[in-house]
Amino acid sequence: MESFLTDKKADRNSEGGNKMESFVSRRYGVEKIYPTTKLLFALVLCAATFLLPFKGAGYYIFLINIGLAVMSNKFKSYVALAGKTLVPIIMLMFIFQLFVVSGTHELFGFGPFRATQESLTSAIVFSSNIAGIASSIMLFFQLTPTRSLIKAMENANIPKTAIFVINSTLLLVPEASKLSKTIMEAQQSRGVETEGSLLMRIKSFVPMISPLVLSTISNNEEKVLTLESRGFSCSNKRTVLFPLKKNKRDRLLNWASVFIFVGLIIWRVLLWK
Question: Which among 34, 75, 141, 216 could disulfide-bond with 250, CB atoms 3.0 to 4.6 Å apart, if both were Cys?
């Protein structure tokens, strides 16, 4: 009877372990590629923005990043983030360069503003460079969760203090955004007007600054205490629940990134000649 209960308990544990493994394989499918492998490929895409021998190369890099986001099941979040942040910046820089840079071949104009052939070329090059670099870095952070990036830095033997600073910096904006929403809802429950005209929103933003700053400082202190309770300063080797290691695929992708980078340099040098 005792052996039967022991076998049944072992079967339950095995079944639970299999469920956990299947959950991890589904939930962390994007994380199977090592963070430094994705970072190297992102840097190659950034370099390709300057090495490709035609104007507006950064826009093509942007389209490539969108395709990679589709392949990684990150299309909606990537496009939404790019539409809110990157696209307005690209448009603003394009318009700024179009009417600020002077030239001799005028295309059109209104009032004191004149667009020339030289300014159009400058606007395309400058805005496409921003598009290529920013979209590549944005995709890297979309495909690389913070926990994987921190684990990769631990594997690289980076000092723990530096890891803590980088981790806090990466999490500062998302945590501050969530905290500001909570504070705003609390202000609304107290009868403070937070919606309406621009002047009304500015007035409602002022009383939110103080609790936001104090709560951020308090959260950082709590993080320090939590890390110390988990043995942050301990020099012994830790046991990791989900180990992050490089495999054969990562090595192949690293070599592919290097070959692409060298090929782009050779192509550009041959065109210069």
Answer: 34
- Token code pair at residue 94: 């394009």
Contacts of 91 (CB under 8 A, 6+ apart): 127
- Is the residue at 21 inside a domain? no
On whether both 110 and 165 belong to a single domain, the answer is no
Residue 111: exposure state from Cβ atoms within 10 A (0-12, 13-18, ≥19): exposed
Q: In terms of residue numbers, what domain contains 216?
A: 148-232
pLDDT tens-digit map of 204-257: 666 677 777 777 777 777 777 776 676 666 666 766 666 777 888 888 989 999
Task: Give the total number of structural domains in the chain.
Answer: 2
For residue range 73-132, list pLDDT tens digits in order.
888 889 888 888 889 999 998 888 888 877 777 777 777 778 888 888 888 888 999 999
Q: What is the pTM of this model?
A: 0.71
Of 116, 127, 45, the closest CA to residue 86 belongs to 127
Residue 137 lies in a domain: yes
Phi and psi (nearest 5°) for 243?
A: -65, 145
